[in-house]
Amino acid sequence: MFVACSTLCFANEPLESALRHIAELEFDKYELAVVEGGRHLRPSEVGEDPESALLGLKRGPALIPSSLYMDFGPVDWSDPVQKKRFDNHCRFAKGLSVAVLTLTAAPAGTPFEQEVKRLTALSATAMREGLVLAMLTHREAITGDPVAALRLCKAVPGLALTLDPSHFIGGGVKESDVDQLFPYVQNTHLRDTGKNAGEFQVRIGQGQIEYARIANLLNRAGYNRALTVAILDLPENNFDREVEVRKLRLLLETLL
């Protein structure tokens, strides 16, 4: 395992500035977030011209991309244009030597078989390119229920998970259900989270996330990928984000 930093930690800065910040905080690996409506690369842009996106990244600091997180926004996945864009994101990932692509699953309440059909097609495309498609465990998505997340992984060939334990805090989720997901984890997003409303992000050490336990369970599952620091750049943060990003890096490095 190794520690990486998500560009989401500096989402309100230009991408070049975000990557410079990540390097200054002594990370050597980063997860690239491609978010529609964000200030960095956008899926609509990368999907139309992946070569230009790759060239732009090569002009930045000498950091190694560890994974790719993609938020396409509300799109029609049956649209051939969207399929072409996803294909191009797979080629973009290969150009970055990235193996894992993270997406958010359909919203909670979406018919299960409908999501299986969508993800089966996307996962097959990723696998043809030698990539792994991983669904983020997000409380507003189908994967916010660990039982449903496990069913998805069993139903869709090659599908994996990006574990974000913050989304399981304070929701009445059974720890034993979450533990069953670890064999399917191919990426992680980490921060500290309290159990009360408004405590999705708190200072490191003030929340409920058990980093050592997570690292231990990942080790047992043979996990050899990133522990990704993903302290989101949000206006409601009441702490120094850079300080907390550095603290979490140092803490995670003690667990390796």
Apparent shape:
globular
What is the makeup of the main sheet?
8 strands, parallel, barrel
- From N to C, what is the helix and strand string? EHEHHEHEHEHEHEHEH
Mean pLDDT: 94
The percent range for helix content is: 25-40%
Distance between the termini: 6 Å
Order of strands across the widest beta sheet? Answer: 1-2-3-4-5-6-7-8
How much of the sequence lies in strands comes to 15-25%
Radius of gyration: 17 Å
Descriptive account of the structure:
- The protein is of the alpha/beta class.
- Helices cover 38% and strands 17% of the residues.
- It is built from nine helices and eight strands.
- The protein has helices at residues 15-24, 43-48, 50-58, 80-95, 112-128, 146-155, 175-179, 211-220, 241-254, and strands spanning 2-6, 29-35, 64-71, 100-104, 132-136, 160-163, 185-190, 226-229.
- An eight-stranded parallel barrel has the order 1-2-3-4-5-6-7-8.
- The chain is globular, with a radius of gyration of 17 Å.
- The model has no long low-confidence stretch (mean pLDDT 94).
